[in-house]
Design brief:
Blueprint: E1 13-19, H1 23-35, E2 41-44, H2 53-56, H3 68-71, H4 87-100, E3 107-108, E4 111-119, E5 124-131, E6 137-147, E7 171-173, E8 188-192, H5 196-206, E9 211-216, E10 222-225, H6 230-239, H7 241-265, H8 267-280, H9 288-291, E11 304-307, H10 310-316, E12 320-324, E13 327-330, E14 334-337, E15 342-344, E16 347-350, E17 363-366, E18 369-370, E19 378-379, E20 383-384, E21 390-392, H11 401-422, E22 426-429, H12 447-452, H13 471-479, E23 488-491, E24 500-501
Parallel strand pairs: 1-2, 1-6, 2-3, 4-17, 6-21, 7-16, 8-9, 8-16, 9-12, 10-11
Antiparallel strand pairs: 4-5, 5-6, 13-14, 14-15, 17-18, 19-20, 22-23, 23-24
Helix pairs in contact: 1-11, 5-10, 6-7, 7-8, 11-13
Length: about 500
């Protein structure tokens, strides 16, 4: 499927502008198409391809770190046997969703949004975007904005400053900017990091490299899960894929939520179970206490999932190894550690994390005043206090991202329906409890979160202002709960503001 940006003759005014054509923006487009067929919308994507993460990242072995029956959309069953899926399969799935739901012509590639200004008098957003290639700016207007921009910077990943890096005679690459010409066959590779990207890269690269070393400052929890779901395979065969989809989805949600809650309620027990699982998959002499026993509690950071224990298999065969130490400096031939050991390397991969970026660094203004995002508060984890006619899709940190996106999209469509049926033009969350404590919207202790979460809107600590990353609670308030809320201010445009609802 090919999406082009030429021969556009439609009006530049829409009911909804969706920013981002990754999994969140595509989900929003499909929900609007199905639930609100009369709603005009466009999807603005800054890059020249859809797919977000799944078209941006090209490093070896890229795959989902959640099961696909829940990471995929609720309205589209996952069609493949692999539950933990390779990136190219996920990208194909997203392309199919776009084509099957008839939203191809709604997507405008190469439109990087720079700013968005809301006018209360007009009840509309004015969006300025820059077109790739030509550099020209275009202006579009819309009643609503829906942000499907994710939470990290697409332009740059995070790499610490390593002393002596300029002395290294090999090649240093970051997974977010994987060079297509990188040849690591029969080379010595050091992967710096212990997170989801590192545990994905290592077994994939080990198949061709001379040796791959995972160099970590401290360990992460690593959980082996089946690449294929045996129960899903049986249900798909007996019931058919569409009927089985919801059953498999509910099962996987229940298992994931049970594991997370158990980690919170009995962290010592879960810690023992997770580490015992690792110990069973590695040789008897392997130092699990040093290399796979984290200092933090389970789910203080995301668990790293490895399908069929592929990381442990690479270590067991001797194709990969783990070193837990700190970097002193790079040398001409590799990396010298604080312990004095030197790791020889031809290629160093800095799987050192993401750079968080709020809403694509778009500059927001309301009636001429700048919106300072950290001063705003999430409402129902999908809107922002003091910012009218704006919805945000930020997924979960402790279960599949897209489960939250589906719920936000459902509620967003219900909100539009409510406003249309009552003749409202504008809705704005109003935080009328200035004494309420506000907290970060993500409570993970991962380095990328600590570095970047201060740039984002914050969460409240009660009522609709909480951000709890709890699927069952969001089902209650987004899918089953009412649209009407005392914290929402609904208004009509000034021309007929005789009726106002608070």
């Amino acid at each position: 499927m090919t999406i082009t940006t030429t021969s556009r003759t439609r009006s530049a005014d829409f009911d909804v502008l969706i920013i981002g054509a990754g999994i969140s923006g595509i989900g929003a487009a499909c929900h609007l198409k199905a639930s609100r067929p009369g709603t005009s919308f466009a999807v603005l994507e800054g890059r020249d391809s859809i797919g977000g993460t799944w078209s941006l990242f090209q490093y070896p072995g890229i795959r989902s770190d959640s099961d696909m029956p829940t990471f995929g959309f609720g309205f589209k069953p996952w069609p493949h046997r692999k539950s933990i899926a390779d990136g190219h399969l996920i990208l194909d799935y997203l392309r199919q969703a776009v084509a099957e739901n008839g939203v191809t012509e709604n997507i405008r590639l190469g439109h990087r949004v720079l700013s968005a200004d809301f006018s209360s008098a007009e009840g509309r957003w004015t969006v300025t975007a820059q077109r790739s290639g030509s550099g020209e700016t275009v202006t579009l207007t819309a009643r609503f904005l829906f942000l499907g921009t994710g939470y990290y910077d697409y332009e740059s990943g995070f790499t610490p400053e390593f002393p002596g890096a300029a002395d290294f005679e090999g090649r240093v690459v970051h997974p977010q900017h994987w060079p297509p010409d990188l040849d690591y066959r029969d080379r010595r590779v050091v992967v710096i990091g212990s997170g989801a990207t590192a545990v994905t890269l290592i077994p994939s690269m080990a198949a061709e490299a001379r040796h791959v070393t995972m160099l970590q400052r401290s360990p992460s929890y690593v959980l082996s899960i089946p690449a294929e779901d045996a129960i899903a395979r049986v249900l798909n065969k007996v019931l058919g894929r569409r009927r089985a989809h919801q059953m498999v989805r509910r099962k996987n949600i229940a298992v994931s939520r049970a594991m997370f809650k158990a980690s919170r309620r009995a962290p010592k027990l879960m810690r023992r179970l997770l580490i015992a699982s690792v110990r069973r998959q590695l040789p008897a002499h392997f130092d699990v206490d040093t290399h796979f026993t984290p200092r933090y509690k389970p789910w203080d950071q995301r668990l790293c999932m490895v399908p069929d224990g592929d990381l442990f298999k690479a270590i067991s065969t001797g194709k990969a190894s783990v070193v837990t130490d700190r970097i002193d400096r790079f040398t001409r031939a590799g990396i010298r550690l604080d312990s004095g050991q030197e790791l020889a390397a031809d290629v160093v991969v800095t799987a050192t994390g993401l750079t968080m970026s709020p809403f694509g660094e778009i500059r927001f203004r309301v009636d001429g005043g700048e919106v300072n995002l950290p001063e705003t508060t999430f409402y129902k984890a999908m809107m922002l206090s003091g910012v009218p006619n704006l919805a945000v899709a930020l997924g979960y940190t402790n279960i599949s991202w897209t489960l939250k996106v589906d719920l936000v999209c459902e509620h967003f469509c219900r909100l539009l329906e409510h406003m249309d049926s009552h003749g409202y033009d504008v809705v704005e969350p109003v935080l009328d409890d200035p004494g309420m404590e506000r907290v970060p919207a993500m409570d993970l202790s991962a380095g990328y979160v600590r570095r970047g979460i201060g740039k984002f809107p914050r969460a409240g600590t009660r009522g609709p202002w909480t951000v709890e990353h709890a699927y069952e609670k969001d089902v209650a308030r987004l899918r089953e709960g009412p649209v009407e809320d005392s914290a929402l201010k609904f208004t009509r445009k000034p021309a007929h503001r005789s009726e106002e609802k608070r």
